[in-house]
């Protein structure tokens, strides 16, 4: 009888913690709607698997992380816009990529310049999101609340999310990021999160948007594990790359030459 009680109790415990874990999105996130964030996109590889995020910054241009684009041929990447549920094939549009621009100084995510721009075969009708300019430094003040979006993992070793998720994280002081990550580059990056961890971006979110003040301020780049105590997420400081991005993003698409 005692044994049975213990069994029943432990079964209850296991199932209740199971429920709690499923509820509490590990990146401390919650669902986000595509209608409220119409410029957020996800990238599919040649097998149709989502591997990164991105942001529509012009009708035919998607900003993502260089580490999402490197080593891939344009024909092996597709951009999915207007689709909150990755499994909803009817929703939104899938656009082919015709060109991949990667920052010429890019080596690896933790060495900076983790930015790339994908050119789409067709113009999309979703509203693009403007990116931060050098005059937007106020958005990078420690404590500024940023919203990160993506379909990445909802726990460090978990699976990527079927639905678009968002998490709010404050910008941390550069000194904090430097203490945690000695090779952190404060000119090229910023870090955001809580000392206690729990809320963070994770694998699969890379390349995706981090927004504040109606602008794209960051791109998800790297971090040690996900949502770990004292290990915040590191993001591309987009304002720093505005100068490099403008010629690529604002370039008018090649004119169709008629014979
Ligand atoms: N590099 C990862 C990706 O490719 C993003 C990692 C973000 N990590 C973090 N702890 N915030 O999706």
Element order: H for helix, E for strand: HEEEEHEEEEEHEEEEH
- Gyration radius, in Å: 20 Å
In CATH, what is the class of the largest domain? Mainly Beta
> CATH-wise, what's the superfamily of the largest domain?
Trypsin-like serine proteases
Total E-strand runs: 13
Helix-and-strand structural type: alpha+beta
What would CATH call the architecture of the largest domain? Beta Barrel
Oligomeric composition of the shown chains: single chain
User: Which ligands accompany this protein?
Assistant: arginine
Shape: globular
On the 0 to 100 scale, the average pLDDT is 90
Keywords: Disulfide bond, Hydrolase, Protease, Serine protease, Signal
Pfam families: Trypsin (PF00089)
GO molecular function: serine-type endopeptidase activity
Organism: Lentzea albida
Architecture overview:
It is a single chain. This protein is of the alpha+beta class and 259 residues long. It folds into 2 domains: 7-34 and 131-239, Trypsin-like serine proteases (Thrombin, subunit H, Beta Barrel), CATH 2.40.10; 40-126 and 242-250, Thrombin, subunit H (Beta Barrel). It has helices at 2-23, 66-69, 174-180, 242-249; strands at 30-31, 40-44, 50-58, 61-64, 78-81, 93-102, 116-120, 145-150, 165-170, 189-192, 209-212, 215-222, 233-237. The longest helix is centred in the N-terminal third of the chain and has 22 residues, at 2-23. The radius of gyration is 20 Å and the shape is globular. The termini are far apart. Arginine binds at residues 152, 200-206, 220, 222-223, 226, 233. Residues 1-21 form the signal peptide. One of its GO terms (biological process) is proteolysis. Belongs to the peptidase S1 family.
């Amino acid at each position: 009888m005692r044994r049975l009680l213990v069994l029943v109790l432990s079964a209850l415990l296991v199932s209740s913690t199971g429920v709690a874990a499923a509820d509490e999105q590990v990146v401390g996130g919650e669902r986000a709607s595509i209608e409220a964030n119409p410029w957020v996109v996800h990238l599919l590889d040649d097998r149709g698997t989502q591997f990164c995020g991105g942001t529509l910054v012009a009708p035919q241009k998607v900003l993502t992380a260089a580490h999402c684009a490197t080593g891939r041929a344009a024909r092996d990447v597709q951009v999915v816009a207007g689709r909150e549920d990755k499994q909803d094939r009817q929703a939104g549009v899938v656009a082919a990529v015709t060109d991949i621009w990667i920052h010429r100084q890019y080596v690896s995510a933790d060495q900076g310049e983790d930015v790339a721009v994908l050119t789409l075969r067709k113009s999309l009708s979703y509203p693009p999101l403007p990116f931060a300019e050098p005059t937007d430094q106020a958005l990078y003040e420690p404590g500024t609340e940023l919203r990160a979006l993506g379909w990445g993992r909802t726990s460090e070793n978990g699976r990527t999310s079927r639905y678009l998720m968002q998490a709010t994280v404050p910008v941390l002081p550069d000194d904090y990021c430097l203490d945690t990550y000695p090779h952190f580059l404060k000119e090229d990056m910023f870090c955001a999160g809580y000392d206690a961890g729990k809320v963070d971006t994770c694998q699969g979110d890379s390349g995706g948007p981090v927004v504040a003040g109606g602008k794209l301020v960051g791109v998800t780049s790297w971090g040690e594990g996900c949502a770990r105590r004292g290990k915040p997420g590191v993001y591309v400081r987009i304002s720093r790359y505005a100068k490099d991005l403008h010629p690529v993003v604002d370039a008018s698409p090649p004119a169709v030459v008629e014979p």
